Amino acid sequence: MTSFSLEGKVALVTGASYGIGFAIASAYAEAGATVCFNDINQELVDKGLANYAEKGIKAHGYVCDVTNEDQVNAMVAQIEKEVGVIDILVNNAGIIRRIPMHEMSAEEFRKVIDVDLNAPFIVSKAVIPAMIKKGHGKIINICSMMSELGRETVSAYAAAKGGLKMLTKNICSEYGQYNIQCNGIGPGYIETPQTAPLREIQPDGSRHPFDQFICAKTPANRWLQPEELQGPAVFLASEASNGVNGHILYVDGGILAYIGKQPS
Ligand code: NAP
Ligand code: GCO
Question: 91-120: string of b/e by CB count within 10 Å (b at 16+)?
Answer without folding.
Answer: bbbbebeebeeeebeeeebeebbbbbbbbb
